[in-house]
Amino acid sequence: MLKTFRGGIHPPYNKELTSQKPVERAELPRLAVIPMSQHVGGPCEPIVKVGDHVKVGQKIGEAKAFVSAPIHASVSGKVVAVEPRPHSSGTPVMSVVIESDGRDEVYEGVQPPKSLDEMTPDEIKSLIREAGIVGMGGAGFPTQVKLSPPAGKTIDTIIVNGAECEPYLTADHRLMVERPDDVVLGLRAIMKATGVKKAYIGIEDNKPDAIRAMNDAVKGFKGIEVVPLATKYPQGGEKQLIYAITGREVPSGGLPMDVHVIVDNAGTCAAIANVLKTGMPLIERITTVTGSGVKEPKNLLVRIGTPVGELIEQCGGFDGEPGKVIMGGPMMGASQSQLQAPVMKGTSGVLVLQKSEVKAFEPMPCIKCARCVDACPIHLMPTYLGKFAERGMWAEAERYHALDCIECGCCAYVCPANIPLTQLIRLAKNRIIVSKKK
């Protein structure tokens, strides 16, 4: 019996477009637009100015806050601007713009560290922080912070998220097939940094080649187990993954550490491995460019700061009339209004849909079918939360645990009345958070 969670849905996965396509190295961007905010927490402060020449791996953004992560140049060349630029969030963000010189010169300070066996836990965490490693599944939480739980929070289990449940996306899938040893090396570093002896790698059963590759890679390493999971969305959600693998339930308002677990993405593990092997900080990632709206869907190893439009060009350009370009997947991604927004540390995919696929739905009154309640993986009452949001009843929404919503989109997906429940709950969450800050 495959492990899974309660609730969830089975949308069309459409992964066959790229699941068997090996990762290709993308061309260097002509202009790398590198936002100073690519993570949860405080944005970085630019430490370069217009006219400076920078090299690959050189720090260009300093993290001043504890919950933050430094940012590095992904290309060598001249800094031509330090100013707000388009961002996937839709709001311009302070960015360092580098005109690539095409030479791809590596910064002199990028040197391999000593071996993992020789490093102390604190040295591992310091290396991870200085390399700018963050969660690469989309959330972007600084990894060093995650590996440093507060006093009183004990961790006994590490889970590597290899589920990749979002439709269309295959970046983690190809990573686990092509570089399984890197995933294991990064996991071993996390285990040593936290002193944890037990780890699981969760992979949905629609990726049998990845399961085989990871099983081969963990042989000989005590305490690491590959766990096949049922294919169901959102199996890759932290709370759903923890419940499926361990049976532990993260409490309302809680974090994985409240049930003694840390969850890290497979891409995050591989990024840690790359730092251990080369000393190179996080300057690139695998991104799936896919959908009916591109001529040749691909998995690309992309430099951070590459504009989305350039990636689409490298996949043959648009196929037909584009209707929507989404940063991420169709369930949790963000639609883009322009193609200048750059790839960031958490950009696992770029989805292009043809205009014929994008339909406008007219919301109708709720018919009280409770499909949204059955589908919600957090066991909320989406129909109530949607009504509270429509009426501005923020206190009531908070009492019904709106802040626990993971915005997975399951409720809106199954609603026969076409009510935009996810968007309404997101509005309620924002209003609640704003009121708390006041």
UniProtKB/TrEMBL annotation:
It is found in: Cell membrane. Its main location: membrane. Belongs to the 4Fe4S bacterial-type ferredoxin family. RnfC subfamily. Residues 357-387, 396-425 form the 4Fe-4S ferredoxin-type domain. Residues 1-21 are annotated as: Disordered. Its EC number is 7.-.-.-. Its cofactor is [4Fe-4S] cluster. [4Fe-4S] cluster 2 binds at C376, C405, C408, C411. One of its GO terms (cellular component) is plasma membrane. Part of a membrane-bound complex that couples electron transfer with translocation of ions across the membrane. The lineage of its organism: Bacteria, Bacillati, Bacillota, Clostridia, Thermosediminibacterales. The complex is composed of six subunits: RnfA, RnfB, RnfC, RnfD, RnfE and RnfG. It comes from Thermosediminibacter litoriperuensis. The keyword Secreted does not apply. This is Ion-translocating oxidoreductase complex subunit C. [4Fe-4S] cluster 1 binds at C366, C369, C372, C415.
